Structure to design on (119 residues):
């Protein structure tokens, strides 16, 4: 059983689009204010490498990722089916925006994501 300890980095450019970060079991203690809330997980939606940004924008829209919040998205179709991603709003606009928000592959995480998950 693996757990995720999320350290949100302040430079979203390091984890945008298909250059998403893979983060399992630390590190913790990275400096960032963190999101102000966590939205309900999104279970289901298409996600493929070739259409990553448009797929993610369709699934993680302004109706399910609020400003300065985080959300988990698990794809159920496409070549990334079964992967779970943590998306964190970094630009102050609701929903996922390409090259502006943080994307971390947290496939295999266990536990509950809450505001205290961020350091």
């Amino acid at each position: 059983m693996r757990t995720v300890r999320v350290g949100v980095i302040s430079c979203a450019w390091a984890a945008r689009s298909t250059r998403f970060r893979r983060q399992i079991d630390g590190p913790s203690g990275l400096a960032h204010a963190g999101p102000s809330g966590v939205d309900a997980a999104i279970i289901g939606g298409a996600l493929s490498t070739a259409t990553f940004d448009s797929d993610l924008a369709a699934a993680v829209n302004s109706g399910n990722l609020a400003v300065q919040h985080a959300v988990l998205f698990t794809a159920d179709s496409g070549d990334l089916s079964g992967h779970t991603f943590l998306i964190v709003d970094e630009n102050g606009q609701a929903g996922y925006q390409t090259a502006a928000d943080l994307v971390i592959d947290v496939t295999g995480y266990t536990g509950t994501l809450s505001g205290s998950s961020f350091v």
